[in-house]
Design brief:
Blueprint lengths: L17 H11 L8 E2 L2 H10 L12 E8 L9 H14 L10 E6 L3 H13 L6 E8 L4 H9 L3 E5 L4 H14 L3 E4 L6 H7 L1 H14 L7 E5 L4 H14 L5 E7 L4 H8 L24 H8 L2 E5 L1 H15 L5 H11 L10 H16 L7 E8 L6 H14 L1
Parallel strand pairs: 2-10, 3-4, 3-6, 4-5, 7-8, 7-10, 8-9
Antiparallel strand pairs: 1-2
Helix pairs in contact: 1-3, 1-7, 3-4, 3-7, 4-5, 7-9, 8-9, 9-11, 12-13
């Protein structure tokens, strides 16, 4: 990766597209779950309460209907399975005929869900005719649970320190190649095939929105967490492609304590990852890259922030009321909507601004009931260390 990603796609590169996302959907459909779009009347009531002071022309209160795209129920418990599966399957499609039976070694550096995703793909794609192995460069401080998941799929882990994972990854690739092995390197997020794979969740949403809200229905807003930007890029490109550049607002959600994408987006100058780490959202610590940064600038309308207190409160509410396990990085997006409705002090000012703008745009387009908004919230994953989350909940309760 270049030291300083630019606002334009790298020269000569074909950027990710809706057509590429649709092709990825057809490619990976047999291998991934079609995750549900979940609803909750209790969540809708709180979300509507949070924007009750948004002014509308006719004085009618804003009513929000939320659909949670539950990628926490995806294979390996996160959306990353989509991108990894698409990238590897597409690679295998283009293999020369005389290499179809040659052992393939997949290599990446990741301390999180992509590590498990690539290990899963290697395990799933191995056959008597084709051996596929995975080598994962993982930080020494990576979650033991995630390391156990990688090992459980039969992958090999090479330890590194957080600051030198790219160097160790390059060295491992050279070592394998020196042994005469065939190697394919896949970065965790800044890769066109991975971005298009992640965007396939919105191919499902295009149909699911009509199943949930009625024939012809589409979301007014799509809200998605953003870290390195692989998921956000795919979601944004697909959302704009399906629902129109002006027909849908695509919003990124980022932790206030790791707000590099927010700064890059509004400053129009790339910013590196925030150091030291100041958030519980461990899946959203990576800075955007050469492909994801220009993709966000071209397809995302806003990026809004939430504090960890709001995120933990939203996570606890969803665990208790919707009976699904989501990780802090997933709870961040609902937190930007719910604000202080769960007892915290954070006023969702930016979310209220966005809601007001969407209501006004719908009214100007002559839509019926412009104050009623349909919001898709992407829940990116559910991989947590249970004891850590329970301590967060206990601390929250002790402070009340």
């Amino acid at each position: 990766m270049a030291i300083q990603p630019e606002a334009n796609y790298p020269e000569g590169m074909e950027p990710p597209t809706l057509q590429g996302i649709q092709a990825a959907h057809n490619r990976i459909k047999p291998y991934v779950h079609r995750t549900p779009l979940l609803t909750s009347t209790g969540l809708d009531a709180l979300a509507s309460q949070a924007v009750q002071d948004v002014e509308t022309t006719d004085g009618k209160p804003v009513q929000l209907s939320l659909g949670l795209k539950a990628e926490n129920l995806q294979r390996i418990g996160a959306f990353k399975a989509r991108g990894a599966m698409n990238a590897v399957l597409k690679y295998l499609e283009t293999e020369p005929a005389d290499e179809k039976n040659v052992e393939l070694n997949l290599v990446t550096h990741s301390s999180g869900n992509f590590a498990q995703a690539l290990a899963l793909v290697a395990h799933s794609m191995t056959s008597p005719e084709k051996s596929i192995k995975a080598t994962i460069i993982m930080s020494s401080i990576a979650s033991p649970a995630k390391k156990a998941g990688v090992i459980g799929y039969g992958a090999r882990i090479v330890d590194c320190e957080p600051h030198n994972r790219v160097e160790i990854c390059d060295n491992e690739i050279k070592r394998l190649q020196a042994e005469g092995r065939k190697v394919a390197h896949f970065p965790p997020y800044d890769h066109v095939d991975i971005i298009e794979g992640q965007g396939t969740c919105m191919v499902e949403v295009e149909q699911q929105a009509q199943e949930v809200w009625g024939s012809g229905a589409r979301p007014d807003v799509v809200l998605c967490p953003v870290g390195g930007g692989g998921l956000m890029s795919g979601v944004a490109i697909a959302s704009k492609g399906y629902f129109g550049k002006q027909g849908v607002k695509v919003i990124g959600a980022e932790p206030a304590g790791a707000n590099d994408a927010h700064g890059s987006f509004y400053g129009k100058a790339w910013q590196p990852a925030v150091v030291p780490i100041r958030t519980v959202c461990d899946g959203l610590l990576t800075a955007t890259g050469n492909i994801t940064y220009p993709a966000l600038l071209a397809n995302v309308d806003d990026i809004i922030l939430a504090e960890d207190d709001s995120t933990i409160r939203a996570m606890k509410f969803i665990w208790e009321r919707m009976k699904i396990i989501i990780e802090p990085s997933s709870a961040l997006a609902p937190a930007t909507i719910l604000g202080n409705t769960l007892g915290g002090s954070e006023d969702p000012i930016e979310w209220k601004r966005i809601v007001g703008e969407v209501v006004q745009a719908k009214r100007e387009r002559g839509e019926l009931e412009p104050e009623k908004l349909k919001v898709v919230v992407v829940i990116s994953g559910g991989n947590v260390v249970l004891t850590q989350v329970l301590r967060m909940f206990e601390k929250l309760e002790n402070e009340q």
